[in-house]
Write a structure and sequence with these properties.
With about 375 residues, the protein is an alpha/beta fold. It has two domains: about 210 residues, Aspartate Aminotransferase, domain 2 (3-Layer(aba) Sandwich); about 140 residues, Aspartate Aminotransferase, domain 1 (Alpha-Beta Complex), CATH 3.90.1150.10. Helix content is about 40%, strand content about 15%. The chain has 14 helices and twelve strands. α7 links the parallel β4 and β5. α3 packs parallel to α9 and α4 packs parallel to α5. The radius of gyration is 23 Å and the shape is globular. The structure holds pyridoxal-5'-phosphate. Pyridoxal-5'-phosphate binds next to α4. The site of pyridoxal-5'-phosphate has 12 residues, from α4.
Length: about 375
């Protein structure tokens, strides 16, 4: 054979791979099939690299364990998992009920994309009882989208009761369970049909990979999710799948530390004179603590708190004085983060008037004593600016 042909085929034998602890990062668009019959054999599931290779398979198997699911699909971001799962089960003419404290990009998808395709969205107050919520559904209601605790304001919903009532009316339920991560709350165990999360946050855990997942137990829903991924053409890079699997391996130990440190910082905050109220469902005495205690097996490091009335300049002085807490919108990584929230609340339909500025913290894996010392510096700056 000529040199150019030899260079193309050298080393492409089929020597078996040695076995390592983690799967190989297989890179491939083309999958070579064993024989002509396999080309159109429906039992041969993986016929093209977009469907995922070794690292994707291992990650999906791990996420099935985490979610107690029959099937899990991967998406290139958390938002893509939400939009993908919704597109997989909705059709023109449907209505969805979406909790008003939902993650803001979810709202953008509903208001801009679903609307264009004839799916209408009705936002509901997270404080509605399960009976009021499901009782308010119409004949067109196909799905209820829940997020508990909700973004920024941390209200919790009785997901089990909502799932039960919705199922009796033939309405699907879907939870954005990024806070619960599958480890401290498993939506499918509580009767929710579709469990979606931004793996970007706690499963990744290092603020450096985007990915989302959607999990289901009902075979028809698993098939709908898989078809949805196929139809829309999503693919996740093998390196990212590998890195996400690495995060999954240490999720439990990281989450225990996030939860414990978060509660220490939250309890400390409650004693500070500048703080009006702490919004951490896992802290006794905080709103919705009973629901958390009934359904959750742990806490993560994300929670909110209200400052006593303070000017925007004083809030900025507080944030700018922090040295360990970074100012950033994501969470779930090893590092602590802080943001002010009032600007983001403006897009909500059911505006809650808070007596003071709403703040959010993500407590990372640093020593909690260093974190409270950092916050004390922030409070000193807030007092000086008042
Ligand atoms: C971050 C986040 C998402 C989106 O995840 P991306 O990977 O950033 O797209 C979805 N839902 C919630 C609650 C989030 O916090």
């Amino acid at each position: 054979m000529a040199e150019d042909t030899r260079l193309i085929h050298a080393g492409a034998g089929d020597q078996p791979l040695v076995k390592t602890v983690s799967p190989p990062i297989q890179k491939g668009s083309t999958v070579l099939l064993p024989n002509a019959a396999a080309l159109y054999d429906d039992d041969h599931f993986i016929t093209y690299g977009r469907q995922g290779l070794a690292a994707h398979d291992a990650l999906r198997a791990g996420l099935c364990e985490l979610e107690n699911a029959k099937g899990v699909c991967l998406y290139p971001s958390g938002v893509a998992a939400i939009s993908g799962a919704l597109l997989a089960v909705l059709k023109a003419g449907d209505e969805i009920l979406v909790v008003d404290n939902t993650y803001k990009p979810t709202r953008r998808f509903c208001d801009h994309v679903l609307k264009r395709f004839g799916v209408s969205t009705r936002y509901y107050d997270p404080r509605l009882s399960p009976e009021e919520l499901v009782g308010g559904a119409s004949d067109a209601t196909r799905l209820i989208l829940l997020e508990s605790p909700g973004s920024l304001s941390f209200e919790m919903q009785d997901m089990a009761a909502i799932a039960r009532l919705a199922r009796a009316r033939g309405i699907l339920t879907m939870a954005d369970n990024t806070w619960g991560s599958g480890l401290i709350y498993k939506p499918l165990d509580h009767g929710i049909d579709l469990s979606v999360q931004a793996l970007t946050k706690y499963v990744g855990g290092h603020s450096d990979v985007f990915m989302g997942s959607a999990a289901a137990r009902d075979p028809a829903l698993v098939k709908a999710l898989e078809d949805g991924v196929l139809h829309l053409g999503w693919a996740v890079a093998p390196e990212d799948a590998y890195q996400m699997l690495r995060g999954l391996r240490t999720l439990a130990v990281r989450m225990a530390r996030h939860g414990e440190s978060g509660l220490k910082v939250a309890a400390w905050l409650r004693d500070q004179p500048q703080v009006l109220q702490v919004l951490h469902p896992a802290l006794p005495g905080c709103p919705d603590h009973e629901l958390w205690a009934r359904d959750y097996t742990g806490a993560c490091g994300l929670f909110g708190f209200l400052l006593k009335p303070a000017s925007e300049a004083a809030v900025a002085a507080f944030l700018d004085a922090l040295e360990i807490f970074g100012l950033g919108f994501s969470w779930g990584g090893f590092e602590s983060l802080a943001i002010s929230c009032d600007e983001q609340l403006k897009t909500r339909k059911f505006l809650r008037t808070y007596p003071g500025p709403l703040m959010r913290l993500h407590v990372g894996l640093e020593d909690p004593a260093d974190l409270t010392a950092d916050l004390a510096k922030g409070f000193a700056a807030l007092d000086a600016a008042a």
